[in-house]
């Protein structure tokens, strides 16, 4: 019963401010709208290569928005000291923080599924002649698996919020790592290709795009040695480890 109470409390706290609603709506609408834009610009010559993976072009953008929401769910509580009330009511901080993680990651995962399926549906409607049928495992994985990636990404964001505690700092750290460093590190001579498999967000792309982090045939887009499911396991393990560190730090610090 205490666990259900914690989940209910975290749900109420999450939706007591406007930012989660804005992030949820923006992530969903923007992802689907960009998918419509891409589908609308596909030419007849490009139709054979317009596969289900291509409909998920904007998925990373949407996941970034939900990661911002996850960070704010933590840092806002520290900013206004409402986290102290939670810890006073529920002294077991690990339980309280895990409940928050479940609620936020669950919402991110659900939003990711809606955005991914919506992107695929509008693409099918706009380009019925394209090979968009979900016939193979990789097709289902890139669409249905998006929600899993969004949820795990939210866990990483929560961990960053626990470690840094400041909204601007945590958001900057996650964005720089996700959007900048993971695109730059693989191009470092000699060591770059060896690092690529072990970058967490690249591993997430490996899972979605059948072991290829970019979903393209570029020279940098080499198949992962971990494979799709190994990449997902690594991404999840990285998130779990970072969250564990964040919870340990939160337990030792004053709220």
From TrEMBL:
Name under which the protein is recorded: ABC-2 type transport system permease protein
Keyword Transcription regulation annotated: no
Keyword Transmembrane helix: yes
Residue intervals passing through the bilayer: 21-42, 57-76, 97-122, 142-163, 170-188, 232-250
Keywords: Membrane, Transmembrane, Transmembrane helix
Superkingdom of origin: Bacteria
């Amino acid at each position: 019963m205490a666990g259900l109470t914690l989940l209910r409390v975290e749900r109420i706290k999450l939706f007591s401010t406007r930012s989660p609603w804005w992030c949820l709506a923006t992530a969903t609408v923007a992802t689907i709208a960009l998918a419509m834009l891409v589908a609308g610009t596909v030419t007849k010559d490009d139709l054979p290569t317009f596969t289900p993976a291509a409909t998920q072009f904007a998925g990373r953008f949407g996941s970034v928005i939900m990661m911002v929401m996850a960070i704010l769910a933590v840092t806002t509580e520290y900013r206004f000291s409402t986290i102290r009330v939670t810890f006073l009511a529920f002294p077991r901080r690990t339980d309280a923080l895990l409940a928050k993680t479940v609620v936020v990651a669950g919402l991110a995962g659900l939003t990711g599924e809606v955005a991914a399926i919506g992107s695929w549906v509008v693409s099918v409607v706009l380009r019925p002649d394209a090979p968009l049928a979900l016939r193979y495992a990789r097709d289902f994985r890139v669409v249905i698996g998006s929600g899993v990636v969004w949820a795990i990404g939210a866990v990483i964001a929560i961990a960053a919020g626990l470690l840094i505690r400041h909204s601007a700092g945590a958001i900057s750290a996650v964005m720089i790592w996700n959007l900048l460093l993971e695109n730059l590190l693989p191009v470092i001579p000699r060591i770059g290709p060896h690092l690529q498999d072990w970058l967490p967000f690249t591993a997430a792309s490996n899972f979605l795009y059948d072991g290829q982090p970019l979903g393209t045939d570029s020279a940098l887009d080499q198949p992962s040695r971990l494979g799709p499911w190994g990449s997902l396991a690594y991404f999840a393990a990285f998130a779990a480890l970072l969250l564990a560190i964040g919870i340990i730090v939160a337990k030792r610090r004053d709220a």
